[in-house]
Amino acid sequence: MTNKIVKYIILGIILFGVSYFGTQWYIEYRLKQYLGEGLLGGELVFSKLDVNLWKRAGRLEKVSWHRTKGESIFEVDQIEVKGVQLLQLVFKDQLAISEIEIEQPKIKWVSNKSIPEKKAEKEMKINAITVEKVHLRKGNFKWIEHDRLKAEVEQINLSVHNVVLNHKTVKKAIPVEYDSYRFELLDLFLSVNNLQDLKLKELVLDDSLLEANDLIYTPKYSKREYVNHIPYEKDLINLKIDRVACKELKYSIDQIFSLYIPGVDIQKGDLQIYRDKTIKDDVRQKKLYSQMLRELPFSLKVDTVAIHDTFIKYQEKLGENEVGEVSFENVNAAIGHLTGGQARYNSKKETTLDLKADFTGISKLDFEYSFRVADSTDAFQFKGSAWEVQDHQVNKFFIPALGVQANGSIDALHYNFSGDQNKASGEMIMVYDELKFEVLKENGQKKKIMSWLANIVVDSKNKTRKPVEVTGVKRDKTKSFWNYYWRCLQKGLKKELL
Fold it and tell me: What pLDDT does residue 453 have?
């Protein structure tokens, strides 16, 4: 081999090396520019960027991102980028990537008044960023508000396919477009308000499924202490649900959030509600369910909701040592045509509830409720039946409502009422045998003469009597629908018995 050939070989190697490493340096330089200039309206900071031109791969180390000069929102030790299309980056000003892998990121959102408002977002200086696959594994999330933990997720796993970020998408509520995704949260905690926390063992969300397992909605305080944290009467709720599944759901985020779910399935709920009636009332006007749904700030449409094998207990503290209680076991219910917000305009169907349960574990009952969300009069109808109701069950209603105590049982109770936001009317029939009453004083002692007179007036047997008509039940607008429901039953019971 002549010296001339050797020189050409050496020169070629030098030129190739200069070209290779020069191009790699240029790519790194351009990437640093792109990643540092207004990405998603914030600032991306990293300690090191390595590009392997031969493998078309890159690696970011010690990465953080934040919207303001405040605390970092996103931190991760390393991000691996694979399959970078270098020609598109150089000639089309587009960053095209085959795969991004993010391992064990820490995401922290701090929301304080001391942090200045977000400044105007910078324009992207790259035409587009496209990624075929994004994988985030074993992430951790915390949301701090005014130095208090607002939410936390122990582990986040995320997979997204065909992600696109460009000048158009960056201005949307969700700044990227994508084809499909799977989002998994493990051990979620959320401080809902000053009384309640929400915990979830697992939450899975993908293109068409939302599934939550081991949901717990729990009080922050005990029954004795919670009254020190509320200005007026308020429910304290303990809720546990084994599983909630929403299949084939669809949503969009444009000018208004829109959600459509063909079916929701709720398995094995345990709902316990407690209210202390010894503190002052909340005298604000309450809305009926139809109005609540009508005024939703987003569009909602759910075809069916199925509730299986659920337990419900309601307790009221009426005095220092007096607590009323009612419970329903084996609750199975179906809700149909649940609409709200703008979706109500496209639905003329009634929203319906059909419920069956065991009353205090002994009696069977059913309940049907219907209304049209779009009806501004809030017209509704409810009807129901109960069978084989024992005296110790009905006394929980009779004593506080009528001042009487029953001895005996009710074979059947049937009622049917309709009304609107102001008043209701309907009919009721109670079938019973050997039912007697004791009229009570305020201290719970028996009024002997009044009890004797009551049992003369009230027939102890009612096997064939026709339904009684109930009219003029006025709604107390400072109370909920369920108070309205009880007022209808209360007036019917008084007319039946007294």
Answer: 52
